[in-house]
Amino acid sequence: MARRKKIYEGKAKILYEGPEPGTIVQYFKDDATAFNAQKKATIEGKGVLNNRLSEYFMTGLSTIGVPTHFIRRLNMREQLVRACEIIPLEIIVRNFAAGSLATRLGIEEGTALPRPIVEYCYKDDKLGDPLVTEEHIAAFGWASQQDMDDILSLALRVNDYMSGLMYGVGIRLVDFKIEIGRVYDGDFQRLVVADEISPDSCRLWDIETGQKLDKDVFRRDLGSLTDAYTEVARRLGVIPKSNGHSKPTLIN
């Protein structure tokens, strides 16, 4: 497919004009960043793994009726998605205390939360994506009350799906973040899960050992990020299991 005009380049992806109106080509880079891009590296194969895993999760969500922007994967690094207006919020769902929540509230990392906690951050890298409340969201017009009700419902449905899926392969879904976009059909608006769902945007711990299989491996210098993401893909069947003599290969 001929590549078109670049629309936007972020820390982990590049967006290009799609082949038809209302579509975008999303390209997954090998770049890894942490601590608001203060730590950076290029991790060979990371973009390929995230493309495949995000395809897997988005497709699964669609099959249970959760709307997403995903249309289809184009190749090893690109997927075709619906163009949508991104609501300027990161929606974070937490099942266990970790990261900033553990630090902020002085809770031991790994503590099970009494129920899933949904938090919102304002999407602005320059500000460090600050935590905001529904009062801020309403006051500044980032989303309506109906939008917020729909966002909460979508976030909890994604959590139910992802938690069960991961538990089935021996992985604990500690927390994750998603972005939500508005898609317009004439005058009708609907909200869809957008951006990506991958180990870049989730905390995933092995249930038995507590081994981290997410971007904390990079944040905390815990080993090979590619190996961690490959293990998630292998357990989910996204890539074939290794025969013990060679690393698993990704099938196009």
UniProtKB/TrEMBL annotation:
InterPro entries: SAICAR_synt/ADE2_N, SAICAR_synt_PurC, SAICAR_synth, SAICAR_synthetase, SAICAR_synthetase_CS. Residues 6-235 form the SAICAR synthetase/ADE2 N-terminal domain. Keywords: ATP-binding, Ligase, Nucleotide-binding, Purine biosynthesis. PROSITE patterns: SAICAR_SYNTHETASE_1, SAICAR_SYNTHETASE_2. Signal peptide: none annotated. It comes from the Bacteria. Its EC number is 6.3.2.6. Pathway: Purine metabolism; IMP biosynthesis via de novo pathway; 5-amino-1-(5-phospho-D-ribosyl)imidazole-4-carboxamide from 5-amino-1-(5-phospho-D-ribosyl)imidazole-4-carboxylate: step 1/2. One of its GO terms (cellular component) is cytosol. It catalyses: 5-amino-1-(5-phospho-D-ribosyl)imidazole-4-carboxylate + L-aspartate + ATP = (2S)-2-[5-amino-1-(5-phospho-beta-D-ribosyl)imidazole-4-carboxamido]succinate + ADP + phosphate + 2 H(+). GO terms for molecular function: ATP binding; phosphoribosylaminoimidazolesuccinocarboxamide synthase activity. GO terms for biological process: 'de novo' IMP biosynthetic process; cobalamin biosynthetic process. Belongs to the SAICAR synthetase family. PANTHER family: MULTIFUNCTIONAL PROTEIN ADE2, SI:DKEY-6E2.2. This is Phosphoribosylaminoimidazole-succinocarboxamide synthase.
